[in-house]
Amino acid sequence: MASWSLGLLSLLLFLFLFLFLLHQPTTTSAIRIDAIIRKPSSPELPNFREAPAFQNGYSCGSRESDKIHIAMTLDANYLRGTMAAILSMLQHCTCPENLNFHILSAHYAPELYSSINSTFPYLNFKIYRFDSNRVRGKISKSIRQALDQPLNYARIYLADFLPIDVERVIYLDSDIVVVDDIANLWNVSMEDKVVAAPEYCHANFTQYFTDSFWSDPDMPKTFTGRKPCYFNTGVMVVDVEKWRKGGYTEKVEEWMAVQKQKRIYHLGSLPPFLLVFAGNIKAVNHRWNQHGLGGDNFEGKCRKMHPGPISLLHWSGKGKPWLRLDSRKPCPIDHLWAPYDLYHSDKHHFEE
Ligand SMILES: *[C@@H]1O[C@H](CO)[C@@H](O)[C@H](O)[C@H]1NC(C)=O
Ligand SMILES: *[C@@H]1O[C@H](CO)[C@@H](O)[C@H](O)[C@H]1NC(C)=O
Ligand SMILES: *[C@@H]1O[C@H](CO)[C@@H](O)[C@H](O)[C@H]1NC(C)=O
């Protein structure tokens, strides 16, 4: 416990130093940052066990078109969640070698790269740097501070990051585990839609926006001709080509600019997505996002599962399974996450 908090302290110190150096105008500072980060004797990140190699089944193709592209974000706080999510996908996939991970990170951090590389030595992945300044000025305060992190908005910019030959991508939050073959979500037929996700038409859609939105003479008209329903942006299949052609990044940003002027919603990156896409997505089976397992946004109370088959478990809400397990007050549902946890609390394991 003590060594963990010591590690956290040195991570904070490191981040501080990093930011400080980042603001030095000379070019030599970049080299100095490198030198500090690469120092082998600074174990800032937690250790993870190495995952086994997962091999393709005989039926798997190896063409470009057989690849499955997955985008996730990564920061030090959610690293443990990201590792578990990746492991869960590899484990349940018939063609694990066809999985390609596109990982967005807010910091230039070689140690994040080595952490993933040493945990999954056979993984196809690329890390992209997401420049927080791109979105920082556009973010309005929400009801939960964690939702206001710039990286939480990175999903809006996916189309800009991904290589041009990536036509479709599955975006996933880091607080999930997949317990089914992700190929079954990947091959959803999008029809003419840009986004596919489970849709919840029984949820009270009104509550996601404020009275000043609904009482505005023009704003609610954005939903004219659609029957808007809630969907969760933590699990989405995105047609990247259609997204680019339709300029959807700008459309989402426009609503964020409105939010800056006049408070039209309470949450973070979700409502502007709803404004642009609700009622116009391809609905996929609810099994692909059993969300809310982290409880509500304020207390993170334990939640029960909704009935029905499950392919993906999502700890959205305040409670995260790795924190609740560490605190020895886990919710019953957190025991379903634990088998995918690669965290290795013995710091010296890899240093021998
Ligand atoms: C990634 O890990 C492999 C195997 O452990 C190692 O051979 C390779 O050099 C690593 N790559 C980088 C860029 O660190
Ligand atoms: C998706 O793939 C699964 C098997 O991996 C198959 O059962 C299903 O029919 C496919 N769906 C579509 C729409 O191609
Ligand atoms: C939906 O939420 C709004 C705002 O919170 C509330 O006024 C309305 O009564 C709710 N509708 C239903 C059917 O619960």
TrEMBL record:
Q: Which UniProt keywords are given for this protein, alphabetically ordered?
A: Glycoprotein, Glycosyltransferase, Membrane, Signal, Signal-anchor, Transferase, Transmembrane, Transmembrane helix
Instruction: Please name the GO terms that the record assigns under molecular function.
Output: glycosyltransferase activity
Recorded family membership: Belongs to the glycosyltransferase 8 family.
**InterPro entries in the cross-refs:** Glyco_trans_8, Glycosyltrans_8_dom-fam, Nucleotide-diphossugar_trans
Membrane disposition: Single-pass type II membrane protein
Q: What is its EC number?
A: 2.4.1.-
Top-level taxon of the source organism? Eukaryota
One Pfam family this sequence matches? Glyco_transf_8
* Compartments in which it is found: Endomembrane system
Please report the name of this protein according to its UniProt entry. Hexosyltransferase
Species, as recorded: Tripterygium wilfordii
Asked whether the UniProt record includes DNA-binding among its keywords, one would answer: no
Organism lineage: Eukaryota, Viridiplantae, Streptophyta, Embryophyta, Tracheophyta
